[in-house]
Amino acid sequence: MSSESTTVSSNFLRVIIEDDLATGKHESIVTRFPPEPNGYLHIGHAKSICLNFGLARQFGGRCHLRFDDTNPAKEELEYIESIKESVRWLGFDWGEHLYYASDYFDQLYQWAEHLILQGKAYVEELTADEIRKHRGTLVEAGVESPYRNRPVEENLDLFRRMRSGEFPDGAKVLRARIDMAAPNMNLRDPVLYRIIHAPHPHVGDSWCIYPMYDFAHGQSDAIEGITHSICTLEFEDHKPLYEWFLDNLPVPSHPRQYEFARLNLTYTVMSKRKLHELVTQSLVNGWDDPRLPTLMGIRRRGYTPAAVRAFCERIGVGRSDSWIDMSILEDCVREDLNECAPRVLAVLRPLKVVIDNYPADQIDEFEAANHPQKPEMGSRKVTFSRELFIEQDDFAEDPPKGFFRMTPGGEVRLRYAYIVRCTGVVRDDNGTVIEVHCQYDPASRGGSASDGRKIKGTIHWVSASNAQDAEVRLFDRLFTDPNPDRGGIDYKQFLNPDSVVTLTSAKVEAGLATVDSETRLQFERQGYFRLDPRDSLPDRLVFNRIVTLKDAWTKK
Ligand code: ATP
Ligand code: MG
Hints:
The protein is an alpha/beta fold. Helices cover 24% and strands 23% of the residues.
């Protein structure tokens, strides 16, 4: 697998559009994002959204949101609402231009009759299986259907009766009459309409025949005056059919289709079927599980729309399939959060520290900067007291070489506060250290020694006097393998057993009791976090780790 760790952002569609505007081919551009409302959006869709809405924004054109709702059996209103919300969350707006392919069902129906009248469509009675068998192969021409040469009148009558509900599902279809020997299989008399007796989420039960995607898509583009119809590479083979419809119907405009390479991202899966399986088999906790690549999931986790847009820009838009490493997405999230996330102190796995020479009834406050490089982000007060919490792994009784944190007899700096020396430990019955005792140096207020002695290590802490209890969820990649979906082996075997580690006894600085879930924070030395918008309650803080401070995976 080739992974693009350093991509130079490029976008061949920008060049095409610049040219079309320069030559006057178009005065302004119109693009569209055409989701099928049969599932929730994922990060791959974000690439398409950023591309279509981004081009329109860059070139002063417009982008439509169009639901490609041609298959009532799989579509639900809930998906429509969720898709709209995800597009808005990404920072894009379709304005007045919200459309449904089903808005065009009348027009599409008339165009189907138009083709029949031109002798370019016929009602087929072969079964789906027979149609498949007659299609031929890449090296063999297909076989013409015995119904292919029906008179126009008979086709029209049958098609109208299909529409009026006379026939059961699957009894007949309408096919284009193009060329059963065409080298491009899509031109071998493709199906245009099928019978489905099912109510439609948008148009109710006014129809029992529904157009196929190929028959609806290009014509919807033409009705809306789309100039650049941008889709993923698998539609390249459909382009001659897209063109054929536009050439053979009295459409009001002639859009052009352009294909780009879809996003493939390592350490995750994006197929709707697999995402569905993960959710329905409870391998994750719902569609907004923060480990999923769904936009609901990454949003809940705390990824920002700006980071996702930056990612889509960075990976560029090309015409050859490639893999993008998950670390690129994570880097974009880190870079965005590094700029805007206030720093706070939080201890994830607490170990109690008692400062024996600090009075029990004394409380001190230190001014702590909210961002080391951004004084404009201000500062806050953090409380210091005789009893504190530090991270368990910031203490080692038997330190490995190069360990500059707390050790028996050694000195360490408590961030913003004092230098302390560890003088002893308290153990439980198993011999585990449950408390550390220290002496502080009163002359080191602020963290530097008055005699100039060097203290290598600085650790973070929170005051036991007012620390807030919190649950912290440490999310990691959902799969341990860069390409779990490679085929030949069940992708579920690669599920990462440690994709979430839940810590229930974390301690965070007092001010976090009132933080809101929109605020992204850096827990110093730990990573970026935000309150889980679903599971946090006023008296129960639950933090999601959005991303670590550094990439721990590329080293693995
Ligand atoms: P389906 O298999 O149901 O068609 P889909 O992922 O193609 O699934 P759509 O709702 O049809 O879902 O997708 C809407 C738009 O998003 C389409 O234009 C599609 O090409 C684009 N898209 C889907 N997946 C990706 C991806 N991984 N990268 C870039 N664009 C994508
Ligand atoms: Mg699709």
